[in-house]
Amino acid sequence: MFDWLFDKRKRKDVRLDHIGIDIHSHLIPGIDDGVETVEEAVAMAAKMQSLGYSEIFTTPHVMWDCYRNTPEIILQGVEKVRQAAKAAGLTIGINAAAEYFIDEHFNEMLAKGERLLTLPGNRLLVELPYSTPLMNTSENIFSILSKGYQPVLAHPERYTYFFSNPAEYKKLADGGCELQVNILSLTGYYGENILKMAEWLLKNNLITFIGTDAHKIQHLELISKSDKNSWVSKYPFSNEKLLGI
128: which residues sit within 8 A by CB, 6+ positions away? Predict the structure, then answer.
């Protein structure tokens, strides 16, 4: 009679070994809207290790109106997390890139050839405004490519202004931009419409990478219970293979 209750208690966390590497998270304390303490960062790294990840490339925001993070700030911060995780006995690799908001400051850094923190393969993780579309998104992607970077657009499923014309996603992909979907989107965390768009992008083979975009331990707890979404538990993503690691 109570088999459903016992089944729920026995349910294990989803395994993400097939993904291997997470390329999008916010685990450096106090520099953006992610974790606030080293202890939180280590707890999240431990949870990601338990889910099957072998490596993390954490990606703090670089958004000049809010988070004026430089490579020096980011690399110093990730080293503190790395050392604390090692002291805690974790074996997961912890590295850093950045999530660059495409704004005037970003375009200036790109034009001047300033140092930018990248994912393997010289991949540059970028994000767009949530509420108002840029007038020159395609031109920005071309500029990134022309500087020798491979652009990766973070969470395209969350830019709701594209929903009325999904062909814009294919235009970006055909223009050389890789797209990264959030696992959180596939849990329904951001709402039903964003879940549907994330699945539409996956069904249409427009997604290259899948990432957590975890900002806090509660995000990882939610992801750990996402076994009912076949895109998370069964789709043969391998960030490790795609990154050439």
Answer: 101, 102, 134, 137, 153, 159
